[in-house]
Design brief:
heterodimer, A: mainly alpha, 77% helix, 0% strand, globular, B: mainly alpha, 78% helix, elongated
């Protein structure tokens, strides 16, 4: 009997893994398994049901979390951009730009993946679009199937490591509270926190390092084994004009500079920047889709850019009593720009409603948010019961008992996250495991921001690890039938190895992660 | 018969989802307005920020049932995608009976005193200058449970009907 009550936490985890495999929605599987084990634990006297009282407060905490509000706004922005066919055009132009060199099509997929990651950050949409457009193009040109599949899968997951991303927002929130807890344990009472801006800026260079690693790998492979990644035939690869290139590159670059720049620069919070990005995306989508009145859309976009410049260079304080004529003139200029943008938004919304995609964007934003937050809720119910059954103590002991001190403990946690990544998604790992292990790691002396980046790359890899990597599912759903699941699995293995190299690089050279936040935020 | 009831129950979440989804656009626009006011004119109001928060919370709490209706809660579909209609129906029946419905009932039960206390005193703002209605925010918890329960039962009825048809 004792054996059972002492090992309920392990049983709970095994049952979760088995239940997830059946395919019932993850959210309710997490909550349901927790409910069953809370019941069993209560009957056997191993679980204190009073703990469940904390659930309401936890739920309220999730609803009122200021940081997480950025998620639906970024989702909205991403879905609008997806609807504007930005990805399709980028793939086409980049394919023409790089196609005529060996491995060029695969390189263009990685570059487009990185651009989309920095402007939208939705893994599923990116993988599906690339699977529908780039994958057939690569196969037509005689690329090896595993290489083509692996490249598309991996490039799609860049959305999670290159900011802005849902993964980094949730991770930042979890790391920040773990950091605070660690400082309390160390007896510090003026605690520091970690902002999403810091996490974003920390992940930026490592994300680019990964992009470079993928590209180097593809080029090396194409050079050593040309038959796996041949160049496009000349007559197919017509050269691309600078004008065309600028036309497709400017919109994402404009959004990346405005949104990412303001967050990483510490000017705006992610929520604020996301709303500007979402409005910008609406205006851009209208510019790209409504061919009859491009001038009007362009005017609104220019006005929005004007507002960004004006707002970042001056501050018009109308509430101050010493406001003079100059301030009022600036305010009038600002009001004029706002009027133009408001008019642009009105036109964009009307156009989107007429074309019928406004409803789709709203519905998708709602269902993606419900899915993400549902998983957070399910995972926090699971984590509450798991802790109640003593699972947190068991893991803490394991971390403390690891030989090799701080480094040994970190290696253990990284391996644990990697292994859990085979069966769980980043949300569950962040909500269930990280609050248990991260405070101990920080107390041992690891830098929280550096730690966040290492964990982020590890979690990004969980999208790739068979059998449960979400990127693999999306590709499977959208790939032509000549690509077998075996091709996909074989294709991602080298990229998983590249992820490991990326983690090692950042481990050995922490500056890759910590330099930018230290310059921007003085951490 | 069972599918008739399932469709009647579906209608609740369809209506709710298709109404609530407009909060997505609304929160984008309100947040944008807040940014303009703050960075361009240096004015800010706590209650506007909380307005975005209320919309955000309502969006995912009241949208959860609709998301279940359109089957967009993420699944680990390595086996599920290969299963036939009956196999999927069996997974969904078992999931609804063993996982979804019990956990939602538990959540409803443990959160009830918390929500009732808040509503009975019409609990005010989260922070000074905010919207005087955090009891509405807390009421989202039972609403979330109720919508999921309705949709859980609707899906259960439809899956049972599917299994019955096959026999």
């Amino acid at each position: 009997m004792n054996f059972i009550t002492e090992n309920l936490d392990i049983a709970m985890f095994l049952v979760l893994a088995a239940a997830l495999l059946r395919g019932y929605p993850v959210t309710f599987t997490l909550a349901g398994v927790a409910t069953i084990f809370a019941g069993i634990g209560a009957l056997l006297g191993a679980f204190d049901t009073a703990l469940l009282g904390a659930l309401s407060q936890r739920l309220f905490g999730i609803m009122t979390n200021q940081v997480l509000i950025a998620i639906p706004l970024f989702v909205f922005m991403g879905i609008v951009l997806e609807r504007s066919q930005l990805a399709e055009e980028l793939l086409e132009e980049m394919g023409r730009l790089f196609g005529s060199m060996r491995g060029g099509l695969a390189v263009s997929v990685v570059v487009v993946g990185a651009l989309l990651a920095a402007s939208t950050g939705i893994v599923g949409a990116t993988v599906i679009t690339m699977a529908l457009i780039a994958l057939p193009a690569m196969l037509r040109n005689g690329y090896s199937k595993p290489l083509a599949a692996g490249t598309v899968c991996t490039a799609g997951t860049l959305g999670q490591i290159i900011p802005p991303s849902t993964l980094l927002i949730i991770l930042s929130e979890v790391m920040s509270s773990a950091y605070q807890q660690a400082q309390f344990e160390q007896g510090k009472f003026s605690v520091e926190t970690i902002s999403v801006g810091q996490t974003f800026s920390a992940a930026l260079l490592p994300g680019l390092v990964l992009v470079m690693l993928y590209i180097l790998y593809i080029l090396a492979l194409a050079w050593l084994k040309p038959d796996r990644a041949p160049a496009m035939r000349r007559e197919v690869a017509e050269p691309v004009s600078t004008r065309q290139l600028l036309r497709v590159l400017l919109p994402p670059i404009f959004l990346i500079v405005a949104v990412l720049g303001s967050i990483v620069g510490g000017v705006a919070t992610p929520t604020e920047a996301a709303s500007v990005g979402a409005v910008g995306a609406l205006l851009l989508a209208t510019y790209r889709r409504d061919h009859d009145s491009r001038g009007a859309s362009l005017l609104a976009i220019a006005a929005l850019a004007g507002i960004v410049v004006l707002a970042s260079s001056t501050s018009i304080r109308l509430q101050r009593s010493d406001a003079d004529v100059g301030v009022w003139l600036l305010a009038a200029l600002g009001a004029g720009l706002v009027a133009v943008v408001a008019w642009g938004i009105w036109r964009a919304v009307r156009h989107a409603a007429r074309e019928g995609y406004l409803g789709v964007v709203n519905t998708r934003t709602m269902s993606v948010s419900s899915m993400i937050f549902g998983t957070i809720i399910g995972a926090s119910i699971f984590s509450l019961v798991f802790r109640g059954l003593g699972g947190d103590k068991r893991i803490e002991h394991l971390v403390d008992a690891m030989p090799g001190g701080a480094t040994g403990a970190l290696v253990f946690v990284m391996v644990l996250i990697f292994l859990l990544g085979f069966i769980l998604d980043f949300v569950e790992i962040s909500v269930i495991l990280l609050p248990i292990v991260v405070p101990a790691l920080i107390v041992m002396g690891h830098d929280p921001i550096w730690l966040a980046v290492l964990i982020a790359i590890n979690l990004q890899t969980s999208f790739l690890t068979p059998p449960f990597g979400f990127s693999l599912f999306y590709l499977r759903g959208a790939a032509p039938s000549e690509i077998t699941t075996g091709d996909i699995y074989r294709g991602v293995i080298p990229f998983i190895a590249l992820q490991a190299i990326g983690v090692s690089l950042i481990w050995l050279v922490p500056g890759i992660a910590t330099w930018l936040p230290s310059v921007m935020f003085g951490h | 018969m069972m599918t008739d009831w399932a469709e009647r129950l579906d209608a609740v979440n369809r209506w709710c989802g298709l109404t609530v989804r407009w909060l997505a656009l609304a929160m984008v626009l309100l947040q944008f307005a807040i940014v303009i006011m703050r960075y361009l004119f240096g004015v800010s109001y706590v209650f506007l920020g909380e307005g975005v928060l209320y919309m955000h919370a309502a969006l995912f709490m009241l949208g959860a049932g609709y998301t279940l209706l359109v089957d967009e809660h993420v699944r680990v579909d390595i086996l599920y995608s290969r299963a036939d209609e009956a196999g999927r129906a069996r997974v969904n029946v078992a999931g609804a009976v063993l996982l979804l419905i019990p956990s939602i009932l538990l959540l409803l039960w443990v959160s009830w005193p918390y929500v009732r206390n808040s509503v009975s005193i019409l609990e005010g703002a989260i922070s000074v200058g905010g919207i005087q209605a955090s009891f509405l925010l807390k009421s989202l918890i039972p609403a979330f449970c109720l919508l999921l329960l309705i949709q859980g039962v609707a899906c259960l009825l439809r899956d049972l009907a599917r299994l019955e048809r096959r026999q």
